[in-house]
Amino acid sequence: MATKRLAILFDIDGTLIISGDAGAASWRLAFQELYGIPADIGAFTDTGLTDPEVGRKTFVGVLKREPTAEEFTNLLDARLKHLHQTVIDSTGYRVLPGVAALLPKLLDEGYLLGLVTGNMEPAAHVKLHRAGLNRFFCFGGFGSDSEDRVTLTKVALERAALVYGAPLMPEQCIAVGDTPHDAEGAHGAGIACIGVASHNFTVDQLTAGGCDYVIPSLEEGWPL
Ligand SMILES: [Mg+2]
Questions:
Q1: How far is the CA of 31 from the centre of ligand 1 (A)?
Q2: 32, 46, 83, 204: which has the fewest Cβ within 10 Å?
Q3: Torsion over CA of 125, 67, 39 and 132, rounded to 10 degrees?
Q4: Nearest CA to 183 among 1, 45, 18, 15?
């Protein structure tokens, strides 16, 4: 008999919610405030990168040098400050199909729900707050734990075990994400990944990208 899953680790952007332009706008305002340049993260990064990777690549792209540690901290702080307002102001913000029904159902079924996201921890909570979704998640691994998705996924698993009160085997955990980066992060940490084709990637692309299960949305075909 297959091992029962206990912990489910959700990515945020493109999996649970779309924040519209809120993320890009917050970076643009942070670079504008600190350097007088309305930097476009889309010109230097692709979807699924961690916040520190986005900040660093955009900094190098715009300023043509690496940031000092102090500059980088100031950039991340400024970005968080602006994100609070850009999420409130975003006209494109929405919760993705199936999320509102699935999360309470999974809690009722006894799963432990967590986050695994490239967002800095406060950015994750700011983005989920607008939709009232923070209450479903009792642990997580974040972009503020590591720039590297594999490492932050391992951190999420350690925290899941703390909440659970006992070690969790990899077969008891599974990640859910909307990009091949999510599958890479999950597999690097030794766990499987459900790909959700509700945003930038199609079912075929997520299958080719290594996801162990692929569903069109969180409304259809939940595999557990
Ligand atoms: Mg995502």
A1: 23
A2: 204
A3: 0
A4: 15
1 C-alpha to center of ligand 1: Å?
Answer: 32
At the fourth CATH level, the homologous superfamily of domain 7-19+94-215 is HAD superfamily/HAD-like (3.40.50.1000)
The separation between CA 191 and the C-alpha centre of its own chain, rounded to angstroms, equals 16
Residues with a beta carbon under 5 angstroms from ion ligand 1: 11, 13-14, 178
Using the mean position of ligand 1's atoms as its centre, give its distance from the Cα of residue 85 in Å.
Answer: 21
How far is it between the farthest Cα atoms of the chain?
A: 60
pLDDT digits (tens, 9 = 90+) for 74-84: 999 999 999 99
CA of 191 to the centre of ligand 1 (A): 17
For range 48-54, the mean pLDDT: 89
Give the pTM: 0.95
Question: Strand order in 139-141's β-sheet?
Answer: 139-141, 112-116, 7-10, 173-177, 192-196, 213-215
Tokens 């299958």 — which residue? 207
pLDDT digits (tens, 9 = 90+) for 98-150: 999 999 999 999 999 999 999 999 999 999 999 999 999 999 999 999 999 99
Report yes or no: 3 and 118 within 8 Å, Cβ to Cβ. no
Quick: pLDDT tens for 144-170: 999 999 999 999 999 999 999 999 999
